[in-house]
Amino acid sequence: MTARFHCEIPLAADSVLVLPAGAARHVQVLRMQPGDALTLFNGLGGEYAATVERMGRSEVSVQVGAHAAVEREAPHAIQLAAGMPANERMDWLVEKATELGVAGIQPLATAHGVLRLNSERADKKRAHWEAIAIAACEQCGRNRVPVIHPVRTFGAWLDAPLGDATRFILSLAAGTRDLTETVMRLSKARRSYDLSVLLGLLAGVPKEITVKSMQRRQIEPILIICRALAMPWAGVDAVLAMKAAKAGEPYRSMPSVQRSYEMLTSEAAERAMRLLKVRAAAAEGSADEAA
After folding, report:
1. Are residues 176 and 37 part of one domain?
2. Burial profile 198-221: b = 16 or more Cβ within 10 angstroms, e = fewer
3. Most buried residue, 19, 175, 193, 208, by CB count within 10 Å?
4. 152: pLDDT strictly greater than 70
């Protein structure tokens, strides 16, 4: 597959284009040369074949070729609403959810969540997550970038209208239906529907929000068999299970995603151990000074 670059500008066939600064730097890092082929997309659908025409010190010009109406989107839009895990875990969730085809990601601020964002930091984090989603699209072949919605509170998301979307929340409550059964039932009804799944709210669901109150708001509790109920793994499992159920296939966790998550958790554990050692050494030093 040729190198792919996202350009958030209008693209037109049979034209010469100066690449935006970010895409130009990427071309230079890859040490591409005049005549090399690449693919451009702007998130509005389809992709354009292109050829590097000129390489400057900070500017790259390309000859844009034909447009190909290629779409690699899921048949039903999946929106993922997630209580924000800390730092690199949210980055990992955005990357993997994008690769798996979600149409949008809604970061939720919870009452006791670790990640606390004021409005300025929330805007910076959103821009950071958008960049991660774009990079994931460049790598996986998607031509439409998922929407990263502004950070909301759980209550604001709950009260927002979602049109025709069917909303779910991961739950272990008694009587909860299996996700596969639920999605197959929707498919047999032969009606158009989108899916929105809510998860990762163990750190801040208001006490008055119960399964019954969710159902009154037309949010259906579902159960999936996943490797961990904690974020961000449960989010990836939920998307995978929904796609498998829609295709009428048994759910299988992706080994590559599992390995990636295991690496993430092991790195976090190593950092935590290093921090504990530093704190222990500092405590020993304080005790020696006191003695």
Report:
1. no
2. bbbbebebeeebebeebeeeebbb
3. 19
4. yes
Counting every residue written for the chain, the total comes to: 291
In this structure, the answer to whether residues 14 and 44 fall within a common structural domain is yes
Q: Which amino acid is at 131?
A: A
End-to-end Cα, the chain, rounded Å: 66
Q: Following DSSP, what letter does each residue of 42-87 receive, concatenated?
A: -SSSSEEEEEEEEE-SS-EEEEEEEEE------SS-EEEEEEPPPT
Q: How many CB atoms lie within 10 A of CB 242?
A: 27
The angle that helices 88-99 and 233-246 make with each other, rounded to 10 degrees, is 10
The H-or-E segment that residue 22 falls in is: helix 21-29
Per-residue pLDDT of 186-222, as tens digits, reads 666 545 556 666 655 544 455 545 656 666 666 766 6
Alpha helices in 141-254 (DSSP H): 154-159, 179-188, 211-216, 233-246
In which element (H, E) is residue 105 found?
strand 104-109
Beta bridge partners of 82: 107, 199
Same domain, yes or no: 108 and 165: yes
Radius of gyration for the alpha carbons in the chain, expressed in angstroms and rounded: 22
Give residue-wise pLDDT tens across range 26-55.
999 999 999 999 999 999 999 999 999 999
Q: Higher model confidence: residue 287 or residue 161?
A: 161
Which pLDDT score, from 0 to 100, does residue 118 have? 80
Our count of domains for the chain comes to 2
Same domain, 102 and 206: yes
